[in-house]
Amino acid sequence: MAGRWVPWLVIGLWLALAVVMVPLSGKLSSVTTDRAVDTLPAGAESTKVAVLEDSLPGGEDNTFVFVYHRAGALTDADRATVQRHYNTLAKRYPPKTAAAGEDDDDSPTRLSTDRQAMVFTLDVSTTHGAPEALVGPLRDAAKDRPAGLQLEVTGPAAIDGDLDAVFDGIDLQVFLTTVIVVTVLLILTYRSPVLWFIPLVAVGAAALTSMATVYLLVKGFGIVVNDQNSALLTILVFGVGTDYALLLIARYRESLHHHENVRVAMVHALRGAAPAIVASAATVVAGLLCLLVADLNSTSGLGPIGAAGILCALVAMLTLFPALLVVLGRRIFWPAIPRFNAAVEAKPGLWGRLGTAISRRRWVATLGSLGILGVLAIGLSGNTGALREQDQFLSAPESVTGFTVLRQHFPELGGQPMTIYTRPAYQDQILDVVKRTPGVAQAAPGETSGGWTDISVFPADAPDTAAEYDTIKRVRTAVHAVNGAEAIVGGPSAENLDTEVTTSRDEKLVIPLVLAVVLIVLGLLLRAIVAPLILMATVIVSFAAAFGGSVFVFDTILGFKGVDYSVPLLAFLFLVALGVDYNIFLTSRAREETVRLGTREGMLKALSATGGVITSAGLVLAATFAVLATLPLVMLIEVGFLVAFGVLLDALLVRSVLVPALTLLIGRRMWWPSRLSRPVELPDDRRPLVDDQEPALQR
Length: 699
Hints:
62% of the residues lie in helices and 7% in strands. It is of the alpha+beta class. The strands form 2 sheets. The protein has a 4-stranded antiparallel β-sheet. It has a 4-stranded antiparallel β-sheet with strand order 6-7-5-8. Residues 208-327, 556-664 form the SSD domain. The chain crosses the membrane at residues 5-24, 172-190, 197-218, 230-252, 273-294, 306-329, 363-382, 509-526, 533-553, 565-585, 606-629, 641-666.
């Protein structure tokens, strides 16, 4: 940035890049997918069923269940209406086979034993559209019915349609909400009418570039991007990019006091801030890329997606953002313009006073911090069971309430149907084995095509319960035991079971890998062994506390019925990779200051210099993830709250109190085996000031 023309060149290159990338960023939504075949575990049995269904003539069916009921017994007019609705819909969407669950007399509709409800199943080929496009018209087509006759359209496809409706327009909603949140926080942070706009422009450019980059990755490498990962991409780029901006502005403001030329000041600011920013980005990218070893497609896809977003944020905040600041000069800080050689009022400062207090009561600070984290971790004893798909909605839609009504009047049809594919020669044998399997309420043969025949199986237990999952496992064991038969078992609940099992397996593989990779990055950055181990230990304890405190809130306050199976792995990744950032910002500055001040004063100087900016960065990052908590889906609320809470714990307690206290307790051994662990400590009366702006810290 030292050359007069360099900032303008950088801005020009970004404008040229925008011409190419902005149109591509708008295409990302066209390649996002939430189809089961794309997001299921790569090698799971339910995935094989989904792939086979897609390959057979007519494609996969969307199964809708129409449940009609009345407080008293159904009238003749009610029954006639149900039959009329079925006839109309069957003409519009011709079924490939007889409806599952029909009576022995081959009637397409079924009357409950209490005579208060009727049901029919409609299988609609995917050639007619996706579930979210079908569920609305199907409900509208059945509106013409007698007064008092209630109807819920439910079934696997209806649940998928209602779930997809939650994600409809989510990218734009998350983007706009995040922009508003970041804007407000930047205005409050800088109290300047113009400065807040520059980080926002740079982060916005990074976000659009990342969306275009991910689109190109999808087209070039077939990476799976679902709506959830697309929303997380926006959150990551805005949160991390704003953090980098805050750190660089703090260094730049310091540098402007010592250098008259703004370009020279920016060069010095970049030399001071860039190593920590690059190390932070490297840590997050390395952690995200560990997801590539996951077997769940939606999880493994988040790795390169998130890594692309972090890299775009890094490049934008170290090129475009500094260039904009240099071109606009000192006046961008108005009204608090930093002056060259300006006298700075001597005052202790909040973080300086905190550092002094920690230094005097190191054991109290350490044990007190660990005590708070330990109390929060007790929350892990609460309800950490897996969240059922039907409990994902903040407000239960018609498809969820319909399952409740279905179980009340048709207990034998209360579970989501399994689909078994086998060869035609073994259909009768497989059907007989399945009917004798405990937990199976009903099984019916389907059609034969492409060398395969399908069987629909209804479990007796409620969907996504442990009992239903046990039935699925028993059915799989039974059909696999049939000699010579090729039989695979899938369906919505089988997909959820396989996803939960695969996620548990992925956790055992990804979590240790993330810890190892982050530990290596920290070791290379700090050129030490003890410090990285201490920092990783604090991050792990912080994660346990954040998870425990969040489970208490989910269970006791919000009344959620469990934790989504994907939340622990996502939260661990974000909190370890992002939470360690603040320790990197602090300890890299402490290492820099330790060279000339010694361990004690180096840490206190680092805390004093970085306390305000890291706290601001933590608030911004927490607020961006908290945006997810505004969406009407329990899984996103859980991820947003947990990560936001964990980031605040890291920024306000772990980095501000625990890490400084541990560093002061361990002393120069913190930096072993680097040369920093063997400095010549100055006597107390010869030690320099902790901060030349905060003489009250002098001993």
